[in-house]
Amino acid sequence: MNLLDLTEKWTDVRGHLPLLYAIARFLPVRLGLEIGVRDGNSTLAILMGLAAQETPDGLLISVDPEPCENAVARAQEHGLRALWNFRRQTSAQFSIDLSQEAQRRSFDLLFIDGSHDHADVLNDWLLWGPLVRKDGFILFHDTVTYDGPRRVVEEHIPQQRNLFEVCTLPYDHGLTIVRKKCDYWWYQSPGCPIPTEKP
To answer: What's the predicted TM-score (pTM) here?
Structure first.
């Protein structure tokens, strides 16, 4: 299987699969977190990018409360299972497990494509955004089609040049790309001033 095979059939994320592959391969991603799996199209694109690295030692952790049997079978069929840690739980449940680990993880890539409810997307942003390293990427899918992801991007991400670079690709339901330009983090409520220096 190659990337073209993956993009032949229609999925709601099809147009973004080459970008997911490229980020995973060339950033490169050593540790990625995907929230929401479903049939595993985005999962496979990221895993294929990991597998194509010069030294393929990266890992993708994916969380979804559903069993995602089709995605698991596809990853196994294409020999990508060793690069993938699938957790059948919500992102909030996984955060509890992660908080009990002795060593704090730092993610190169965070892909948020789970629940489209505003509160759930905001929770994913607040739970996992701080764990993305400087120059890492946070991707939100469905920011054009669904109100929840769109509101988080528009209302809760401080769009200041010294903190984040933000770009939205408007096709295939919208993909907002956030590059983290700093190591520090805080939560900004809508309407509150944005600090200009590290707290």
So the answer is: 0.89
